[in-house]
Design goal:
With 529 residues, the chain is an alpha/beta fold. The chain is 40% helix and 12% strand. The longest helix is centred in the C-terminal third of the chain and has 23 residues, at 388-410.
Length: 529
């Protein structure tokens, strides 16, 4: 097969693999070559093991050869991701591989078992390329809080890719992998998806098992897919979703096979929009929303209406309280989850002579500033005398937020359309000195986590040359419906000029002496903060 294999979508790779036009080994080698050549200036990856990747690819090719020998039915029985490379955020357990969660406190830790999603990917025949960079313990919105240095945005290497799953998003946008997994606690898949100009989906809470995922906030975390188009994201979700007895929050809800059969035709996909009723929440145009971001969203709504969808303004009145409630609930759960990192059982261990001193020294050295900030916030919120005033009240607000969404669904709305992020990607370092400004970047995404709903961000154009994302929010377990709407929007905008624009930083990544993101951040200096 001629051309750059890394530019293929995953579904195009599947066709080429089954026809014998290419091999899984060739796909793996092409992506490994791009990572080696370009990731110095991007820093999307924390661990890649080329010999293991190529060995897994050869196994996938052997299975493909056996299926070809058995006939068309055997080939059709293979999962569409068979032989396709996938990246994993570095909080997903892979037996024998590092699992740092972006923190020094887990430096050197190697997972002794596979996460449920890892098992599902292996069963599908996917090839795991490696582990991607992330904000420490998924605490952040920019991937600048990684203990191993920040990641750059392929659209502008001086800017952040979003977070906390920024490494996965940047790797997909830069063609270093066709697919990746992230986790979304308050927007950590959808927001970097928006800022990097790709598709990112947060499934319904309980749709995907959290077994083997390093926990941040257990009632909010959910694993989900990144891809460069909707059909690929749907196929990856199909591979990882489903009940897992090892996770009590994993729901026994069937995974729809329709995820593998979204329309290939743009016209057919667009036809599915006719007659849909979509809600546009007035509260999601939050203070600080950039003019270009709002303009792209309004244009997307107009395009949806022109295609036969009905878009009506709706109200989610408790949205304004979502940010405050989230930053009580999430840190409270984080303070409990991170208590296990004590320097005794695994990970970093600093010895100073006594048990309490060892404990304090290990956590003091192992956790970064943002993790410490959230541990302190959460511990305070759960402390005697403050539990009901803070955590208990936040949980009540959470119930009210869910009630707002329930009222919208009861009114007959099929899905909600909203901004994903109120801004495009910002400069490295620009918000590090103002944590509240950083937190506000998730104002449009975190209510979805508080209510346990599915949401997906899809590209919706450019503002000042940088990607803008359109967010679709649905009823519980409506991932297939959401992805059909997303595929419809993809279809009606297939010929839009902005879809032909590639990330501007790709050429620079191959330049000799391309600075690392850490060097770029230092060069930008405090003046940009």
């Amino acid at each position: 097969m001629s051309g750059d294999l890394t530019r293929l979508t995953a579904h195009a790779m599947a066709v080429a693999l089954r026809s014998g036009e290419t091999s899984s080994a060739d796909l793996a080698a092409a992506h490994l070559g791009r990572i080696e050549a370009e990731d110095h200036g991007l820093h999307a990856w924390l661990a890649v093991d080329p010999p293991a990747v190529l060995a897994a690819a050869r196994e996938a090719d052997a299975a493909l050869a056996r299926a070809r020998a058995e006939g068309p039915a055997a080939l059709a029985a293979l999962h569409p991701l068979h032989g396709v490379p996938v990246a994993l955020k570095d909080l997903v357990s892979v037996r024998g591989m590092q699992c740092t969660a972006g923190s020094r406190i887990l430096e050197g830790y190697r997972a002794p078992y596979d996460a449920h999603v890892t098992e599902r990917l292996r069963a599908a025949g996917a090839v795991i390329l490696g582990k991607t960079n992330m904000d420490e313990f998924a605490m952040g919105s920019s991937t600048e809080h990684s203990a191993y240095g920040p990641t750059s945005n392929p659209w502008d290497l001086d800017r952040v890719p979003g977070g906390s799953s920024g490494g996965s998003a940047a790797a997909v946008a830069a063609f270093e992998t066709p697919l990746a997994l992230g986790t979304d606690t308050g927007g950590s898949i959808r927001q970097p998806g928006s800022l990097c100009g790709i598709v990112g989906m947060k499934p319904t809470y309980g749709r995907v098992s959290r077994y083997g995922i390093v926990a941040y906030a257990s009632s909010l975390d959910q694993v989900g897919p990144f891809a460069r188009d909707v059909r690929d994201a749907a196929a990856l979700l199909h591979a990882i979703a489903g009940r897992d007895a090892r996770d009590s929050t994993s729901a026994p809800v069937p995974v729809p096979d329709g995820l593998l059969h979204l329309p290939a035709s743009d016209d057919e996909a667009a036809a599915g929009l006719r007659g849909l009723r979509l809600g546009l929440p007035r509260e999601y145009f939050v203070e600080g929303t950039e003019a270009g971001t709002e303009a792209r969203l309004r244009e997307a709504v107009a395009v949806l209406e022109a295609s036969g969808a009905h878009v009506d303004e709706v109200s989610l009145p408790h949205t304004d309280y979502g940010l405050a409630a989230y930053y009580i609930v999430a840190p409270a759960e984080a303070s409990a989850n991170l208590a296990r990192y004590d320097g005794i059982r695994y990970g970093l261990s600093v010895r100073v002579g006594d048990v309490l001193g060892d404990y304090l020294a290990t956590r003091g050295r192992g956790f970064g500033p943002e993790a410490k900030r959230r541990i302190m916030l959460g511990t305070y919120a759960l402390s005697a005398g403050y539990y009901e005033a803070f955590y208990g009240k936040a949980q009540k607000v959470r119930t009210l937020i869910k009630g707002d969404f329930d009222a919208v669904w009861a009114s007959g709305v099929d899905a909600i359309v909203a901004p994903t992020s109120p801004t495009v990607a910002w400069k490295l370092g620009a918000k590090l000195d103002d944590p509240v400004a950083m937190y506000l970047s998730d104002a449009c995404t975190l209510p979805v986590n508080m209510a346990g709903l599915p949401g997906v961000s899809i590209p919706a154009g450019l503002s000042d040359g940088l990607p803008v994302g359109l967010q679709l929010i649905g009823r519980p377990w409506s991932e297939l419906d959401l992805l059909r709407i997303a595929r419809g929007y993809e279809g009606i905008t297939a010929t839009a000029a902005w879809r032909t624009v590639e990330p501007h930083g790709l050429a620079e990544l191959r330049a000799v002496g391309c600075p690392t993101p850490t060097e770029r951040a230092a060069a930008l200096g405090a003046g940009d903060r």
